[in-house]
Design a protein that fits this description.
- By secondary structure, the protein is an alpha/beta fold.
- The chain has three domains: about 120 residues, Methylthiotransferase, N-terminal domain (Rossmann fold), CATH 3.40.50; about 230 residues, pyruvate-formate lyase- activating enzyme; about 55 residues, Nucleic acid-binding proteins (OB fold (Dihydrolipoamide Acetyltransferase, E2P)), CATH 2.40.50.140.
- The protein is built from 14 helices and 19 strands.
- The strands form five sheets. It has a six-stranded parallel sheet with strand order 2-1-3-4-5-6, sandwiched between helices.
- The chain is globular and about 60 Å long.
- The model has no long low-confidence stretch (mean pLDDT about 95).
- The protein binds S-adenosyl-L-homocysteine (SAH), iron/sulfur cluster and FE3-S4 cluster.
- The site of FE3-S4 cluster has 13 residues, from helix 1 and helix 7.
Length: about 425
């Protein structure tokens, strides 16, 4: 039997695309290989968001080259955002690759698979125009959380970001396909549906808004919890906040990337809001959803970021009382507006700021988690954790470790929180 191996870098869009690629491979008679050494086809699904992400993919791919010595018929494919950015140039760096495929061609993979052969010239499948994925025989992870894409691409052109260039303009998946895919989920495993997109709040279909879609998903039989990611602050309407507050299956986790705490930098980033707007939005969220978990993304060392601008980001974390923040040092992405901006910040300064901001994030998360100790809350059990414990997530997406038997996996159970650190809570079954 022919075997496949897929390595995935990057965001949930890539995770979901890899699930589709795996499903198509299995539909064509391939079985999963535990290690790349045992595979007949290896796909590397890459991310371009920062230089480091690209470097990791190149390192992984270069390591694969030697496998062709022991298995000359091995097919190596590079997929995802790096080939979409590099196009044909990619073979200059990776001449041994058989297949180069951009994210827009995932839908065609079944046909592509028939066309690719080992030891031929590199085959290219790269399209510019985005289109919503069709429904495929997706091979989902045995996780109680199922990712469902509702939109692809992005129109926002934040000045630092490569996504609009590699994923194309926004396209929305039809609600019929979204509902059909949700209907097909094995509800004995998948208890939570996570609606995905770079900017989910902008989803629409005729007169239907994102809030209408949330109401429709809420009616789907068998779905117990619903979450969504990522929200853009400029598109986070009162209606969405109220819908989350009102509908019982909607989780109270809002991921709302702020990117910087300084109005000047927000403007240079082309985020289309300012500090005041963002803080008012946060206030509204906590007012309507008092138990809300609010998480964010912040970039440090964006061109022109002064010590004062950086301090504004630190104070934003405390004022917004974020449960967690994904922090990153600004990375120049060729072709984006910010790459050509004056005032690029030295690497050493970026590193120093990153250390400082991570400390503040950890500190605020720790304080916020202490308030949960002693409370009892629902937990969706995900799988084994360290030291024989099990791990699950609260409706606010907090990770909880506890003692319990494996038959609790994929169940929702009440849990008493007994202690809390910054990133993990401990709990006891009640
Ligand atoms: N659509 C989402 C997130 C997209 S990318 C949003 O609008 O927020 C995920 C995160 O990567 C971004 O939120 C940003 O914080 C980070 N990021 C994007 N480009 C970056 C760059 N050039 N350097 C460093 N971090 C970057
Ligand atoms: Fe990138 Fe901005 Fe689009 Fe998010 S909203 S994907 S950060 S351009
Ligand atoms: Fe990376 Fe592409 Fe996602 S650049 S963050 S994998 S959309």
């Amino acid at each position: 039997m022919r075997r496949y191996f897929i390595k995935t870098f990057g965001c949930q869009m890539n995770v979901n695309d890899s699930e589709i690629l795996a499903g198509i491979l299995e539909d064509n008679g391939y079985a999963l290989a535990e290690v790349p050494q045992k595979a007949d086809i290896i796909l590397v699904n890459t991310c371009s968001i920062r230089q480091k992400a690209e470097d990791r993919a190149y390192t992984f791919l270069r390591e694969l080259k030697k496998l062709k010595k022991t298995n000359p018929d091995l097919i190596i494919g590079i997929c995802g955002c790096v080939p979409q950015r590099e196009k044909e140039n990619i073979v200059k760096q990776l001449p041994f690759v058989d297949l180069v495929m951009g994210p827009q061609c995932v839908d065609d993979f079944s046909n592509i698979l028939q066309e690719i052969e080992p030891n031929k010239e590199t085959q290219f499948y790269i399209e510019e125009k985005g289109r919503p994925r069709k429904i495929h025989p997706t091979k989902r992870a045995k996780s109680p959380r199922a990712y469902i894409n509702i939109m692809y691409g992005c129109n926002n052109y934040c000045s630092y970001c490569i996504v609009p260039y590699v994923r194309g303009r926004e396209v929305f998946r039809p609600s019929k396909d979204i509902m059909e895919e949700i209907k097909k989920l094995d509800k004995s495993i998948h208890k939570e549906v996570i609606l995905l997109g770079q900017n989910v709040n902008s989803w629409s279909e005729g007169d239907k808004t994102f809030s209408d879609l949330l109401r429709e998903v809420h009616k789907a039989p068998g779905v117990e919890w619903i979450s969504f990611m990522t929200s853009h602050p400029k598109d986070m309407t009162d209606e969405i906040i109220e819908t989350v507050a009102k509908l019982p299956k909607l989780n109270n986790h809002i991921h709302l990337p702020v990117q910087s705490g300084s109005t000047k930098i927000m403007k240079a980033m082309n985020r289309k809001y300012d500090r005041d707007y963002y803080l008012k939005l946060i206030e509204k969220i906590y007012k309507k959803i008092p138990e809300a978990t609010v998480t964010s993304d912040i970039i440090v060392g964006f061109p022109g970021e002064t010590g004062k601008d950086f301090k504004d980001s630190l104070s934003m974390i405390r004022q917004a009382n974020f449960d967690s923040v994904i922090t990153a040092a600004y990375s120049i992405r060729p072709g984006t507006k910010a790459a050509a901006m004056k005032g690029q910040i030295e690497t050493s300064v970026k590193k120093e700021r990153l250390q400082k901001i991570m400390q503040v994030v950890q500190d605020v998360a720790y304080q916020k988690n202490q308030k949960l100790v002693g409370k009892t809350m629902d937990l969706l059990v995900e799988g084994p954790a360290q030291k024989g414990k099990l791990s699950g997530r609260t409706r606010g997406s907090k990770i909880v470790y506890f003692d319990g038997s494996k038959n609790l996996i994929c169940q929702i159970i009440p849990m008493k929180i007994t202690s809390a650190k910054s990133w993990v809570l401990e709990g006891q079954r009640t």
